[in-house]
Design goal:
Bound molecules: 6-O-phosphono-beta-D-glucopyranose
Helix content: 25-40%
CATH topology of the largest domain: Dihydrodipicolinate Reductase, domain 2
Family: Belongs to the glucose-6-phosphate dehydrogenase family.
Mean pLDDT: 94
Radius of gyration: 24 Å
CATH architecture of the largest domain: 2-Layer Sandwich
Structural class: alpha/beta
Number of helices: 14
Enzyme class: oxidoreductase
Function: Catalyzes the oxidation of glucose 6-phosphate to 6-phosphogluconolactone.
Pathway: Carbohydrate degradation; pentose phosphate pathway; D-ribulose 5-phosphate from D-glucose 6-phosphate (oxidative stage): step 1/3
Strand order of the largest sheet: 8-12-13-7-14-15-16-17
InterPro entries: G6P_DH, G6P_DH_AS, G6P_DH_C, G6P_DH_NAD-bd, NAD(P)-bd_dom_sf
Number of strands: 18
Length: 490
């Protein structure tokens, strides 16, 4: 494994929640594991007026709960610097350039510059422009930019933002984060599919009946009501995380592990998402919003009562949809996706349901034959299992469905910290495999915009599910119509 990575990492939005909970713990973990040796400096750029000493104290306090091996914290903090930054003010970038050059000399950093935009998306464009105008992107090492989501609000705004960023960075220098791609079990999808001979021959519409993807949360919108009101579950989760999972599950075998080869195949899937008519969108996509209810024995309030949420809000906190992929491999195989806040359980799970034997010798009625399933548990459990049929150990010759489970070794750390650690490491190595290419974004927005348009014509009847349940009834009906049900009954 590569060590001695050298880089100056500048984090915009350094005093924000994401930075404290995920970015600093992740960078610390990389530091603690020895990937940088001593050749790293981190500039926390933020709006607050802080000294470097105060900032170091805040980072130290913030990362405590998110790291397992604190023994190198003090030496890590010596690599951390604070810079008050007004993102709109060009003079502020000149002083940032001076600080950058000073730290590059001090830590011998070879001019490798990584900019992380962990801030409001309204500023992504202007920061990218100012980085270039100030000369910060003019360096003898690499220059790379990490952009947090949301990347646009629809195709048009995403295109505009992309053009702004592309004026300062090339596509191969832009790392658009989708933190699901950093999760161990999501990265395992490719390994499972292409690293085993037993799956790939069956991985098509001849043998697969349907694929179900669930990402359910017990959390509500917390303090993000303002952002969430303009986003909703469709843009917050389906446009990115869920469609990314669909593309990994459905893509053709890439020519190599090279990120261009992999992302090219993912793009093909997103391009092949079946263009459905408005009437089918109404039928195939269910939206919901949570009402008050009980979660873990505690009462929780309705979405409309959350801070910064319109009391008559029509924003959806739940989406279930039936997606079809219009190509030879997948024609006729529905991909059911489902995501929601304030559901009964936290669970990210993928279920691949295989078709039943056309005639099973051991059942009077072929319908009793249990389907073979491959279940991929992404969170909170991490692992996968294969459900096969075998004989019950009795004299009646009865059959039973048996689960062959694999559970990843217990890892109590928050998964998202691991995801960010994986992703930041990839960026430092220049590996774009687990980041969204512009073409992926473009096709996923095209798909989402159509749904959004159809939904905008009709007022939903919200709230339509109680907190602590599995979402609105229509979500179950979506599968029942096709003679199926959600395997993950949460
Ligand atoms: C984020 C969304 O991208 O993913 C949040 O903005 C959501 O609304 C989160 O809570 C879920 O992530 P995870 O890793 O907990 O499933």
């Amino acid at each position: 494994m590569k060590k001695n990575i050298s880089a100056l990492i500048t984090i915009f939005g350094a005093t924000g929640d994401l930075s404290y909970r995920k970015l600093f713990p992740s960078i610390y973990n990389l530091f603690q594991k020895g990937y940088f040796a001593e050749s790293v400096a981190i500039i926390g750029a933020g709006i607050d007026q802080l000294t470097t000493e105060e900032f170091r104290k805040q980072v130290k306090a913030a990362i405590q709960n998110h790291i397992d091996n604190p023994e190198k914290v003090e030496s890590f903090l010596k690599h951390l610097f604070y810079k008050q930054q007004d993102v709109n003010d060009t003079a502020s970038y000149e002083s940032l350039l001076q600080l950058s050059q000073k730290l590059e000399d001090q830590f011998n950093l070879e001019g490798n510059r990584l900019f992380y935009l962990a801030m409001s998306p309204n500023f992504f464009g202007i920061v990218a422009k100012n980085l270039k105008d100030s000369g910060l992107t003019n360096t003898k090492g690499f220059k790379r930019i990490i952009i947090e989501k949301p990347f646009g609000d629809n195709l048009k705004s995403a295109e505009k933002l992309n053009n702004q960023i592309r004026n300062s960075f090339e596509e191969d220098e832009i790392f658009r984060i989708d933190h699901y791609l950093g999760k161990e079990m999501i990265q395992n999808i490719e390994r499972l599919r292409f690293g085993n001979t037993i799956f790939e021959p069956l991985w098509n519409n001849k043998y697969i009946s349907n694929i179900q993807i669930t990402s359910a949360e017990t959390l509500g919108v917390e303090d993000r009501g303002g952002y969430y009101e303009s986003s909703g579950a469709l843009k917050d989760m389906v446009q990115n995380h869920l469609l990314q999972m669909v593309s990994l599950l459905a893509m053709e075998t890439p020519n190599s592990r090279n990120s261009n080869d992999i992302r090219r195949e993912k793009v093909q899937v997103l391009k092949a998402l079946k263009n459905v008519k408005p009437i089918e969108i109404k039928r195939n996509f269910v939206r919901g919003q949570y009402d008050k209810g009980i979660i873990n024995n505690e009462p929780v309030q309705a979405y409309r009562s959350e801070p910064n949420v319109d009391p008559n809000s029509t924003t959806e906190t739940f989406v279930a949809g039936k997606i079809e992929i219009d190509n030879v491999r997948w024609a006729g195989v529905p991909f059911y996706v489902r995501t929601g806040k304030r559901m009964s359980k936290k669970s990210i799970q993928i279920v691949i349901e295989f078709k039943k034997n056309p005639r099973n010798l051991y059942y009077e009625n072929n319908e009793d034959n249990a389907a073979n399933l491959l279940v991929i548990d992404v969170q909170p459990n991490e692992g996968f299992s294969l459900c096969v049929n075998g004989k019950k150990s009795d004299q009646n010759n009865e059959m039973q469905s048996v689960k062959l489970p694999y559970t990843m070794p217990i890892n109590d750390k928050m998964n998202t910290v691991d995801a960010y650690e994986n992703l930041i490491f990839d960026v430092l190595l220049g590996d774009q495999t687990n980041f969204t290419h512009w073409d992926e974004l473009m096709y996923s927005w095209l798909f989402i915009d159509e749904i959004e348009k159809v939904w905008s014509y009709e007022q939903p009847n919200f709230p339509n599910y109680k907190a602590g349940t599995n979402g609105p009834e229509e979500s179950d009906e979506l599968l029942e119509r096709d003679g199926l049900s959600w395997w993950n009954n949460l």
